[in-house]
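Sequence in, structure out.
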Amino acid sequence: MERPDLQLSTFMKWLRQLSHTKTPKNRIDLVLLGYRVAISIAFLFIHGLKKITNFQEEIQHIPDPFGMGGYNATIIAIFSNVVCSIFVAMGLFTRLFALGAFMIPFIGLTIVHLNDPWAVRDVPLMYSIAFLVIILLGPGKHSLDNVINKRWFKETYNQ
């Protein structure tokens, strides 16, 4: 049986680990990579591919809040859901394409579903927040943006 002071010490180490506020830099970069890829893949497969495979049906169902026509609204939604997601996942021109991916759910949240219950606004809210985080934090070290900055602009990654 362990001595009580050793148990307290183990408990205090465990508690310190849980409440520790400094995150190692390499962990942040790995988390940004995983987060960026996971959000983008989810957006692509859950929303984007459905729009491509059912294009004609989607034209009828995609909201058109700016009166540009169902075809144009669907093309813009596909660009946001597919092209922007792929670029964000790769970490290539990440902030620009994250902005493109952010706009469709944000417009859905603030214009299309403004008067709908929160159960309907939940998904556009979550994607808006997810892509806003990517816009604010950037792609991290494990991205093609970092490779471009190193080679073309001789910049080193700083956080």
